[in-house]
Design brief:
Layout (H helix, E strand, L loop, with lengths): L2 H14 L3 H13 L8 H9 L9 H10 L1 H15 L11 H17 L3 H14 L4 E7 L2 E9 L4 H11 L3 H13 L5 H8 L13 E6 L9 E3 L5 E3 L7 E7 L4 H17 L4 E7 L4 H10 L6 E3 L2 H7 L6 E5 L5 E6 L5 H14 L6 E9 L4 E8 L6 E6 L5 E7 L2 E5 L5 E6 L6 E5 L8 E5 L3 E8 L4 E17 L9 E6 L2 E5 L7 E3 L5 E5 L6 E5 L3 E5 L5 E6 L4 E6 L6 E5 L4 E5 L8 E5 L4 E6 L5 E6 L3 E7 L8 E6 L2 E7 L3
Parallel strand pairs: 6-7, 7-8
Antiparallel strand pairs: 1-2, 1-29, 3-11, 4-5, 6-9, 9-10, 11-33, 12-36, 13-14, 14-15, 15-16, 17-18, 18-19, 19-20, 20-21, 21-22, 22-23, 24-25, 25-26, 26-27, 28-29, 30-31, 31-32, 32-33, 34-35, 35-36
Helix pairs in contact: 3-5, 4-5, 4-6, 5-6, 6-7, 7-8, 8-9, 9-10, 11-14
Length: 650
Amino acid sequence: MSPRATGIFFLLLTSIGSTALGSDAPAINDVESCLGEPTRTTECIEAAWSDRALGLADLEIIERLHANDPGTAESVAAWAKSRVIPPDPAAEIADPALAARLLELHAEALSALDRLPEAVEELAAAIAIDDGTTKLTWMTPDGPAWQVPIGTGNGRLVRGARTALDAGRSEEARAWLALALRSGAEGWAEQAWATLGGGTVPGLDPAPSELAVPRWYPPLPDLEIPLIGGGSFDLQSARGKILLLDFWASWCAPCLEELPRLQALWEREKERGLVAVAINAQETDELASRTAESLGLTLPIGRYTRTAHRELRVNALPTVILADRSGQVRDRWNGYSTGLELAIANRVESLLDESSSGDAVTVARVLSGEGRLQVRWSRELTARPGGLGVVVASDGDLRIAVSEPGRVSGIGVDGRTLGKFTVPPEAGRLVQGDFDGNGRPELVGFRPGGERLVLIDAAAGRHRLIDAPATVMDVAVIHGTGEGSTSRLALATLDGLYRIDVDGDAPTRVGPAGRRTGVAAPSGRGVVALDQDRNVAWYDEQGKITGRSRGPADGWTLVADGESDGVGVLPAGEVAAATGSFSGTGRREVAVAGPEEQLVVVDIGTGQAVFRARWPGVVSLAARDLDGDGHDELLVASGRALSMLGRAPE
C-alpha cells in the first residue's frame, strides 16, 4: 500500500470508529483457547462460532491450524462452509469474498492431506464465486453491467493452477492460467503456460510488444528570425537538417573568440546538412554587420527580437542552441566555458551521423491490442505529478495542466513546458469545470483525506482556497448544461455527500449522513456516490435517489462517462481512470490504471478490453481531443514522466 493510501486508511479507522474488522477481533480471542485443546479443537471452535455470523478475520484461525494440523483445519473449514455457503446452488451468497476464501482454505487443507482431486474441486468452486482478480466493475441503476480484470489481485488463480498441476488436472490448470495471464500474471504463470503447450493466451496478443517512442526533446518554436541585410529565417525551414543558433554581441569577448570557429564548422559541414545562424543580441544593425565583417563571418546574421526572447529566453552570452533534423532541441549551452567550441563540434558531428531523432524510450509492454494506440511523445517531468487536467489558455490554445509539489505546470500539446505557477500543497489530484460561466474550464485540486480544495484559474495563474464541509475523499464536477451555465462540485466526504458552488454558498447535503469514498457525475445534472456499505446510489438534481445497486466488496472510488448514466467502480490504492474515445473505433471507452501496474482500455458498451499494457507507476490519467481529429488523446502520468497516446494511423 502506498504511503498516501496508508494514511487514508489510518484516517478512516480513526474517524469512523468501530469497523467490521474491529468487531471481528474479539471472535479470534474467543477461540484462542480452543487451539490448546488438541483433542477437541474442532468441537470447541464450532461451539464458539455457532451463534454468530462469520467474517474474514475468523479465517485466520483456520490458517493457523493449517500450518500445524491440516486435518483439524480441514474439518473446521468443512463445518464453516455450511454456515457461509447455502446448500441451494441457486441461492445468493451473502459474502462472496468470505465464501471464496473459505473454500480456498479448505482446498489447501485437502491438498496438505494429499486429497488433491477434492482440493481442485473446492478451488473450482472458489474461483467460480470470486477468482480473486482486481476488477473494474461498470454499474448502472439496474446493477452490474460487466466486470474486467485490471490486476492479478490476491493470486487465487495462480495458486489454483499450481494445485491443479500437482493433481494432474492440466485442463483446469490451463484455464486458470489463461485467466491469470490475461489479468497480468508473470513469472511462474508464464513458465507453466509454456510447460502446458504454450500458444496464444485467449484475449492476449500472440506475443507482448513494446510501446516505444523516440526520446522527447523540446521542439523548436514556430519563429522567424529577421536577418540583418533583409529577409528572415524561419526556424521550421531547417527541418531535415541540423540547425545551430549562436547568440552573441560585440561586447562579449568569448563570443568574438568562438564565432570564427563556428564559421569554420559551418563551412566544413554545411554540405552534410548543417545550417547555422549567428543572432546578434539587440545591437544596431550597423554595429552587428561591422563586427561580423571584422570576424570574417559569411553565415547569416540574425536579429534577436522580443518575440524571440519570449520563445527562447536567452539570458547569457554566448548561448548556443542545437536542434536535430526533426526540429527538436538536443543541446543548449548557456554561457561560455572552456572547451565549448570542441563540445559543439563533436555534438554536431554526432547529430549529422544520426539516422533518426535519437534513441527510443519504451514506456509500456503491450499485452493485447497491439497497433491500436501509439505514443505521440513521452517526456520527463521535474517531479512526480499528482494530477492531470486540460485547460484553455488565454490565447485560446489547449494546455495540459500537471500538478507537481507546490506548483502547476502548463504543457503544450507538443510536450513543451509553457509556464508554471505556485499553488498550495492541497492541489494534488485535479478535476476541471467551468465554474464562472466564461466558457473556459478552471481546475479544482484536492487530496483524499484533506480538508480544503484549491480553485485554480490556470489561464490567469491564480488560485484560491475553499474550505470543505468535512474530510474529502473524492471530488466530481457537475457540469452546466447551457451556454453560460456554471459547474458545481460534488464532494464525497467522511460525513456524507455534499454539493457546493465555488462562490462561497453554504454546501448542501445530498442523501443521508455517512461515509462516502467515491463520487462521480455522469450525464445530466445528477451525481452518483459510493457509500460505506458499498452501495452505489444515483441522485437527481434535487438530491432524491433515483437508483441504487450493490457494488463490489472492494469498491472505493468511481469514474463516470459524460455520455451515459453508468459508472465504473474501482478498488482502493493507486488507481487512475479517464473516459473518452481513444482507439479509433468511435465508441466510448474507459481507461484504467490499476494498482498492479497495468493500463487497460475497455469498450464501455460491450465491456471488452481493447487494449492492455503493463505500465509501471501510473498515478493519473486524463483525456481530451488535443489535435482536433475527433478522437481523444490519452494522457498518462507515470513516475516522473508524462506521455500522450493517440489512435494509431490506419
